């Protein structure tokens, strides 16, 4: 292990990670058990290059994100691209996280040195703009340096493929083919890799085209909608501001503390709009300004969160006291990804029903069945996919797709990945139309319950110290499958480990409950978590009765799932 660490140190060009690794080696030589354990964690394995590319904590060693690992990944990707075509091109983007610009420039120099025509985005920009550039420029591939909504100390490396892949994220078998090339590169010091500064900067016409096409989704929205916007210390504001203005929306009230990129994410414990506390400043701004809506992006603006005012006299989620001044969210609630997906999917279906070739609605397996119900009502094709937009974006004839983790694709002709800016435009246009008609987003949700059905969902997550602990939990559930979840009987279990129907092998268990409800269990792809998705529906009675039925079943299933998982732990 010490030999591997010293070999890594000898090729590391980054003074910060060199100093960090030198200290660990010195302390380990001196018999420091904690240093030895830390060194083992960094060198016992390496960050795997998979369908999510690379993602991990910054630091020295192959099991961290750093300049050595990025150089190896860039050279491996270059080798993969040159093996596929004689003159490949790549476009590279980056966000505002720590070292994102450094990793992007390293990638550009190594790609150019390998003979790949290389284009580098001119500044830090949202992930959807890079995904757009892959299609707009017709490149062979795209690289986005981002860790999306991960903790501040993380960074990552997201890869798209052009050509027949249409600008979608890599999936199997491209991920394993690229990983094999990276392994070959890693057998030699990165100093042996040729570098070149003969790469080009992308000009602003590409960004202008993204802005123009995205703004066009709004049509001519009525003015008068007042909304709050937060970029969550990410890179969404510059592009979103231009899009909102071009689309004709009134200027938003901004959360100034979170508006500009800051890799420290100082106002949030976790830079994810789904996390408790992340929207507290937005709630405050919304109350102060009398806003109709809150629009929030995650740090690379590929995800969208929406919050709406509660009806007078309604308690905030998780609270019984509407007058509790200590509750930052009082008077407001964030919509779930499934609620936003259902509304945007319904809006898409209403547009599509009049077309000769309307296309397909799609959602990931763990998302709510609500979108499938929309497709049935409007006689549209529908497809379930595995988790992740690398699958959603590849559905044939896709017209709209989403996943419950705040990811939406409303304009597949432009971008083949989730796009929080396009989704914000579509949602703002809907909200503007509703307000002009004397209605609201809350009323639209009630109308969905009445016309299509009430769908309720929730998640349960069990966090572990290390990802290596997750397989044992999944194995235990397979070897001792539950007969009940709480007091509700299990009817059958679909095990995706050997493939299921049209789906390739995946570490997923889908548990069907009496009455048609379901529970889906899978390990997280990016964090040391077991994630459980619970869904139920109500289709009888009034909208309020349907909602009560669905919410009640979900609450019972959630209690049963928590009891089951604690028993497994």
Automatic annotation (TrEMBL):
<dbReference type="InterPro" id="IPR016066">
    <property type="entry name" value="A-D-PHexomutase_CS"/>
</dbReference>
<dbReference type="InterPro" id="IPR005846">
    <property type="entry name" value="A-D-PHexomutase_a/b/a-III"/>
</dbReference>
<keyword id="KW-0413">Isomerase</keyword>
<dbReference type="GO" id="GO:0006166">
    <property type="term" value="P:purine ribonucleoside salvage"/>
</dbReference>
<feature type="domain" description="Alpha-D-phosphohexomutase C-terminal">
    <location>
        <begin position="505"/>
        <end position="547"/>
    </location>
</feature>
<comment type="similarity">
    <text>Belongs to the phosphohexose mutase family.</text>
</comment>
<feature type="domain" description="Alpha-D-phosphohexomutase alpha/beta/alpha">
    <location>
        <begin position="337"/>
        <end position="442"/>
    </location>
</feature>
<dbReference type="InterPro" id="IPR005841">
    <property type="entry name" value="Alpha-D-phosphohexomutase_SF"/>
</dbReference>
<dbReference type="InterPro" id="IPR005844">
    <property type="entry name" value="A-D-PHexomutase_a/b/a-I"/>
</dbReference>
<dbReference type="GO" id="GO:0005975">
    <property type="term" value="P:carbohydrate metabolic process"/>
</dbReference>
<protein>
    <submittedName>
        <fullName>Phospho-sugar mutase</fullName>
        <ecNumber>5.4.2.-</ecNumber>
    </submittedName>
</protein>
<dbReference type="InterPro" id="IPR016055">
    <property type="entry name" value="A-D-PHexomutase_a/b/a-I/II/III"/>
</dbReference>
<keyword id="KW-0460">Magnesium</keyword>
<dbReference type="Pfam" id="PF02879">
    <property type="entry name" value="PGM_PMM_II"/>
</dbReference>
<feature type="domain" description="Alpha-D-phosphohexomutase alpha/beta/alpha">
    <location>
        <begin position="47"/>
        <end position="186"/>
    </location>
</feature>
<dbReference type="InterPro" id="IPR005843">
    <property type="entry name" value="A-D-PHexomutase_C"/>
</dbReference>
<keyword id="KW-0597">Phosphoprotein</keyword>
<dbReference type="InterPro" id="IPR005845">
    <property type="entry name" value="A-D-PHexomutase_a/b/a-II"/>
</dbReference>
<feature type="domain" description="Alpha-D-phosphohexomutase alpha/beta/alpha">
    <location>
        <begin position="209"/>
        <end position="307"/>
    </location>
</feature>
<dbReference type="InterPro" id="IPR036900">
    <property type="entry name" value="A-D-PHexomutase_C_sf"/>
</dbReference>
<dbReference type="Pfam" id="PF02880">
    <property type="entry name" value="PGM_PMM_III"/>
</dbReference>
<dbReference type="GO" id="GO:0000287">
    <property type="term" value="F:magnesium ion binding"/>
</dbReference>
<dbReference type="Pfam" id="PF00408">
    <property type="entry name" value="PGM_PMM_IV"/>
</dbReference>
<keyword id="KW-0479">Metal-binding</keyword>
<dbReference type="Pfam" id="PF02878">
    <property type="entry name" value="PGM_PMM_I"/>
</dbReference>
<dbReference type="GO" id="GO:0008973">
    <property type="term" value="F:phosphopentomutase activity"/>
</dbReference>
